[in-house]
Amino acid sequence: MTTPRATMERSPAGSAEERRGIVRAARTVLAAEGWTRCTREATAQEAGLPTDTVERHFPDQEELLLSVLLDSSASVATALAAVAESHLEEITDLEQGLAALGRAWLAPLEAFREHFAIVRHVSAEVTRLPIEAVEKWQATGPRKARQELALRLRRVAARGLLDIADADQAAERFILLVPSGVVQRSFLGALPLAKAESDALIADGVADFIRLYRP
User: Fold this and answer.
1) What is the pTM for the complete model shown?
2) Nearest C-alpha neighbor of 173 from the set 121, 125, 210
3) Are 65 and 26 in contact (CB under 8 A)?
């Protein structure tokens, strides 16, 4: 049994690794069970640690859940920023380039399956979440990704390929018109669509987006 003195003398590296293990365990539980069922007891069981160890690192249950949600959301937003950068930096053919961006925008559904399982749960439980948690989640994840896309679309417009007055609005419309059809029909990747269906949805969305913003 770990004594209080032994706990205090534990190396910072060990304590940091223990904390990371708790966050990983909480992410697994949150993806499987949702916000209200991701308790410190369930997290401790998943991590193979005593509950009081989890409580020592995270005295506040909501702090633990929010840490997981924000970390996961930030990772996806970073991935999407890289997608926007790589597909819009040297774009020449507008239709092909935007379609390629739309397909690549969907890649995190597979690469971050655990995250989108969390999003499905959190979306269903959103009325039970503290409003501050919802705001931080949106700012760290979806809103950040949209802002990064807006930055790249603004550059494309500066080259004369698009006529955009409000880049933030254009980014939001691109997401709604192009990848969102696939995201919604697949339930955030839980039930992946056939490639032909996905490609058709993206092509239709790109055509609508170009009609809105063609110079």
Assistant:
1) 0.87
2) 210
3) yes
Residue 88 is encoded by which pair of tokens?
Answer: 């819009």
The CA distances from residue 27 to 19, 67, 105, 177, in Å, are 12, 9, 23, 30
Q: Say yes or no to pLDDT of 22 above 60.
A: yes
Is 27 in contact with 72 (CB distance < 8 Å)? yes
Please enumerate in sequence order all residues whose Cβ is within 8 A of that of 155, keeping only pairs 6 or more positions apart, or say none. 88, 89
pLDDT at 14: 54
What is the average pLDDT across 85-113?
Answer: 95
Handedness of CA 31, 32, 35, 38 (dihedral sign): negative
- Rounded to the nearest 10 degrees, the angle between the axes of helix 142-158 and helix 131-140 is 30
Q: Comparing 183 with 8, which gets the higher pLDDT?
A: 183
Pairwise CA distance, residues 15 & 116, whole Å: 29
Question: What is the distance between the alpha carbons of residues 22 and 110, in angstroms, rounded to a whole number?
Answer: 24
Q: Which two tokens stand for residue 161?
A: 């390929």
Classify the C-alpha dihedral 198-161-81-79 as positive or negative: positive
Q: Indicate the range of 64-68, 113-117, 183-187 predicted with least confidence.
A: 64-68
List domains and CATH numbers for the chain: 1-59 (1.10.10), 60-213 (1.10.357.10)
